[in-house]
Write a structure and sequence with these properties.
heterodimer, A: 237 residues, alpha/beta, Rossmann fold, seven-stranded parallel beta sheet, B: 225 residues, mainly alpha, Urease accessory protein UreF, 68% helix, binds guanosine-5'-triphosphate, binds magnesium ion
């Protein structure tokens, strides 16, 4: 009685199950489609301490009154990042979820995205009409990157304090993220980082993809990043 | 229905199957914290205990779900669900089983599309979904049981490598030594698969139940369970 799987070509309209709750269908190319009426998912990755949570908080402040927004955190130590967002009153509790990653933050955003998909779907169920979902990866090394089955866009955050060599080292976050943010420019002098070197190397690694230099202490609303997110929200690709 | 192949079983039992298992330690994280596992020998004891208790129950329910779907009796899913709830006294472990079940169901929807994924409802138990996945893969109840009991020990073994820095070769040698035990557990589960769900094994592991309840209250944890 079991159907041969080969006879089941997927069709989003006549799929094999009811839709009591919304959940996305990965299409055959494994790329999460942008669907009208569904939120935009943006992954925020980068090394430990580069300013991911600070950027998420900034985006919540900048965009929270314009769009319905929610956040999934993947901190190694479960709720640290989520607690920060709650404590600082950036987002109410029902808009933040924490996901445990079993000592492997990169696995949870790339190889096995199950727990993050689950958290995103729960947010979509409990917050109908949510327009923007940010997924903060746990701090990781330069080889981490988000699966195209989990998010529509990804921002990779590095900081000048990690050394001005980081853009040159590359890695998928630096070379392929839809937006590279080089944070903590206020510290450049103190750590002897040459921003022009970082700019040159980022251009060489990224071609036409955009890079933004930022200091969240000087620009707590992350204005240029918020503007980039607004432009993503306004297109359906 | 696809013919049974070893390749289908390997796919299902591979730790790289993207169904959320990597973030779960099967009770190992709280057991390590309580001093119950600290080296290779204590890990082996822990895994033997797990294989013969929660592993045996998971294997029996996976085999039964596989047999039910293969026989076209999807009405049995609800009975198996209730019976497994009754064998899972810890609310934290029940929630974990349903979370992992839903994650495997989500993955299988894309990996092997089939109407049964809808029939399993929105929060099925993991062993039931695993059994259905085996059936949809053209596998037998014995293969489903083996995949379930393998999963019950392989997950915590990997977690021990990550948490305690145990030698990965020595850890895999433990898994190799457990092979005959896993085969026995799976064989027993298979014998019972077609019988009444009420008669499926109910081996309890009170320490795992308590560990799961404690773990769920931790402020800082690396694994989801
Ligand atoms: N000087 C300076 N400090 C910053 C800036 N942005 C963030 N920080 C500080 O850097 C530290 C780390 O920032 P987080 O936002 O927690 O970094 P993260 O990337 O989320 O860290 P993990 O989640 O632990 O990987 C905090 O103390 C921030 O206040 C900046 O632009 N300039
Ligand atoms: Mg953070």
């Amino acid at each position: 009685m079991l159907h041969d799987q080969n006879t089941h070509d997927r069709d989003p309209e006549t799929d094999d199950h009811e839709h009591p709750h919304p959940h996305p269908h990965t299409d055959t190319a494994g790329v999460l489609p942008r669907t009208p009426g569904r939120g935009l998912r943006i992954g925020i990755g980068g090394p430990v301490g580069s300013g991911k949570t600070a950027l998420v908080a900034a985006l919540c402040r900048a965009l929270g009154s314009e769009v319905s927004l929610a956040v999934v955190t993947n901190d190694i130590y479960t709720t640290e990042d989520a607690d920060f967002l709650l404590r600082n009153g950036v987002l109410p509790e029902q808009r933040v979820r924490a996901v445990e990653t079993g000592c492997c933050p990169h696995t949870a955003i790339r190889d096995d995205i199950s727990a993050n998909l689950e958290a995103l779907e729960e947010l979509e169920e409990s917050l109908p009409g949510v327009e923007l979902l940010l997924v903060e990866s746990g701090g990781d090394n330069l080889t981490a990157t988000f699966s195209r089955g989990l998010v529509h866009r990804q921002i990779y955050v590095v900081d000048v304090a990690g050394g001005d060599k980081v853009p040159r080292k590359g890695g998928p976050g630096v070379t392929r993220a839809d937006l590279l943010v080089i944070n903590k420019t206020d510290l450049a002098d103190r750590v002897g980082a040459d921003l022009s070197v970082m700019d040159r190397d980022a251009r060489a690694q990224r071609g036409q993809l955009p890079t933004i230099f930022l200091s969240l202490t000087e620009d707590p609303g992350a204005a240029p990043v918020a503007a980039w997110v607004r432009s993503c929200l306004s297109t359906m690709d | 229905m696809a013919a049974e192949t070893l390749a289908a079983l390997l796919l299902l039992a591979d730790g790289r199957l993207p169904a959320g298992g990597h973030a779960h330690s099967g009770g190992l994280e709280p057991t390590v914290a309580a001093g119950g596992v600290h080296d290779i020998a204590s890990l082996e004891e822990f895994l033997r205990g797990r294989a013969t208790t929660s592993g045996a129950v998971a294997a029996a329910f996976a085999a039964a779900a596989c047999a039910a779907l293969t026989a076209g009796d999807t009405g049995r899913f609800a009975v198996l669900d209730a019976e497994l709830d009754a064998r899972t006294p810890s609310p934290a472990l029940r929630a974990t089983s349903r979370k992992l079940g839903r994650q495997l169901q989500r993955a299988m929807r894309a990996i092997r599309p089939h109407p049964c994924w809808a029939e399993l409802g929105s929060r099925p138990h993991h062993p039931v979904v695993l059994g259905a996945a085996a059936a949809v893969s053209g596998l037998s109840p014995s293969a489903a049981a083996l995949a379930a009991v393998h999963d019950a020990v392989a997950g915590p073994a990997t977690a021990a490598v990550r948490l305690l820095g145990l030698d990965p070769f020595a850890t895999h040698a433990v898994l190799a030594r457990l092979g005959p035990l896993l085969d026995d557990v799976a064989a027993d589960a298979t014998r019972r698969a077609a019988g009444s769900p009420a008669d499926l094994p109910a081996s309890a592991a009170p320490l795992l139940d308590l560990a799961a309840e404690r773990h769920a209250t931790w402020e800082v944890r690396l694994f989801a369970s």
